[in-house]
Specification:
- The complex is a heterodimer of chains A (about 350) and B (about 90).
- By secondary structure, chain A is of the alpha/beta class.
- In chain A, about 35% of the residues lie in helices and about 15% in strands.
- Chain A has 13 helices and eleven strands.
- Chain A has helices spanning about 20-35, 50-55, 70-75, 85-95, 110-125, 145-155, 175-180, 195-205, 225-235, 245-250, 270-275, 305-315, 345-350; strands at about 15, 35-45, 80-85, 130, 160-165, 255, 260-265, 285, 295-300, 325-330, 335-340.
- A six-stranded antiparallel β-sheet of chain A has the order 6-7-9-8-10-11, with helices on one face. A five-stranded parallel β-sheet of chain A has the order 3-2-1-4-5, with helices on both faces.
- Chain B has one domain (about 20-85): Translation Initiation Factor IF3 (2-Layer Sandwich), CATH 3.30.110.
- Helix content of chain B is about 25%, strand content about 25%.
- Chain B has two helices and four strands, in the order βαβαββ.
- Chain B has helices at about 30-40, 55-65, and strands at about 20, 45-50, 70-75, 80-85.
- The termini of chain B are far apart.
- The chains are: A alpha/beta (about 350), B alpha+beta (about 90).
């Protein structure tokens, strides 16, 4: 990062977070319009819904809907994109965020700090003059109100060198503006949840190919995922939770049977294939002689619990209307057989996550 | 599957200078590994990337456009895709 009075002799270089959504794309475009060199960083957090759907590789899924939007935006904008793996440090942050969670399992403030801090590190390592984001004042309740924007900037250690081009005219001038690297008059004054101004700008600049802004792609903001995530935190020492356990929260139906034992029941063939990769050392259940989900067990079930797991597996098999179903329970070289009725709906409901 | 690949089958003409196997790895790891591997090549050299993630047929051309490399196309062998990238002049 340059010093306060340091005017770069070369073209000013801005390092930005580029998810590929409309806001970050527009933020980059605003700076490109001012002649700056722009580099986009796209963080892979491990919680992207599209990435998970890619891993499931369902044959009927249109692959064009699963593309990496950061790469697509970089190509359309004509700027280089660096894809960065947020890795283990991100997982530790997600499990224990300093600023807490939003409505679900979303640690939005800590997530922004993590990524902007990462961008600042990238800038120090690879060169650059300031960091920018597509944040919009007042757009998101947890992380984009005025106090949160100030907090994020302060905690990232780049005070004065974090520019939010879309809302800049509502915010105090940053060093890039004060030093004349960026023309403040040509930055924007967008605020609030409405997307009208962004839509208008995208039409003006011919930006048509971007994901719809309403849905979001983050498991951490998903209600069902959040239930499973907080169940995991409640029943497992946080420091011992492994990456694989969080990956498994994304897939299948989840049931908590005892404080120590939970199960994951695959919903289709793609999820069966996915769970297969995680079965080393774990109990797996499967109804015999019919189409069956794979049921993966976390923890050490006693015999009564194994019988219950067999009954749940039977409930989701193709023989769920039969009075008795044969179910195999396997762990490495060990195999047991159960002849059980499919579990009753009331029992199932009390365990469902 | 819809046609995704803007490159034609380059197999008869292209001889790769390096091969990167990302089979079994999912987005965005193949792109991260490709970015790392291509650093070791000289401009004009060709990298062959192996993957079984069909969406890479969209992502790799986009990555090439953003980084100034030439995407030469792909061919499919069973469930694996072989994609070819010629390193551009920029570092």
């Amino acid at each position: 990062m340059n010093g306060v009075t340091d005017q770069p002799q070369r073209r000013v270089k801005a390092i930005g977070l580029l998810s590929g959504g409309l806001d970050s794309t527009l933020a980059a475009r605003v700076l490109i319009e001012q002649g700056l060199e722009v580099v986009g960083l796209h963080f892979s957090t491990g919680f992207c819904m599209n990435d998970h759907r890619r891993a499931l590789a369902r044959a009927d899924e249109d692959p064009r809907r699963l593309r990496n939007e950061g790469l697509r935006a970089g190509a359309d904008l004509g700027i280089p994109i660096e894809v960065l793996d947020a890795g283990e440090a991100y997982l530790r942050m997600v499990l224990n965020p300093k600023h807490g969670y939003g409505k679900r399992a979303n640690p939005c403030i800590d997530c922004r700090i993590f990524m902007i801090h990462g961008a600042a590190e990238f800038m120090r390592e690879h060169g650059g003059d300031f960091v920018f984001t597509g944040e919009v004042l007042g757009q998101r309740p947890m992380s984009q109100h005025m106090q949160a924007l100030r907090l994020i900037e302060k905690e990232c250690g780049i005070e004065g060198y974090l520019l939010r081009p879309l809302s800049a005219q509502h915010l105090a001038p940053t060093m890039p503006e004060r030093l004349g690297w960026v023309d403040r008059e040509r930055l924007l004054g967008i605020a609030g949840r409405s997307r009208k101004e962004q839509m208008s700008l995208s039409a003006q600049w011919g930006i048509q190919d971007y994901p719809q802004p309403s849905g979001g792609c983050c498991f951490l903001a998903d209600e069902n995922f959040a239930k499973r995530f907080h169940d995991k935190r409640e029943h497992t020492p946080i420091e011992s939770i492994r990456r694989e356990e969080l990956i498994l929260l994304k897939v299948g139906r989840h049931f908590r049977l005892t404080p120590e034992v939970k199960i994951i029941v695959a919903r289709d063939e793609a999820e069966n294939r996915f769970l297969e990769r995680f079965k080393d050392g774990a109990w797996c259940f499967e109804a015999l002689g019919c189409g069956s989900p794979l049921t993966l067990v976390e923890g050490e079930p006693d015999e009564a619990t194994r019988r219950l797991i067999a009954a749940i597996t039977a409930r989701y098999s193709d023989r769920r209307h039969e009075p008795i179903v044969e179910v195999a329970a396997r762990r490495e070289d060990r195999e047991e057989r159960f002849f059980v009725p499919p579990v009753a709906e009331d029992t199932l409901r009390s365990h469902r996550l | 599957m819809p046609s995704l690949d803007r490159g034609s089958d380059p197999a008869p003409e292209v001889r790769p200078d390096a091969v990167l196997d990302t089979v079994g790895l999912f987005c965005p790891v193949p792109i991260i590994r490709t970015a790392e591997r291509i650093l070791g090549l000289r401009p004009g050299q060709v990298l062959e990337v192996l993957s079984d993630d069909r969406v890479i047929l969209i992502d790799l051309p986009a990555w090439c456009r953003s980084r100034g490399h030439d995407y030469l196309g792909s061919r499919q062998e069973g469930s694996e895709y072989h994609l070819f990238v010629r390193k551009g002049e920029k570092p």
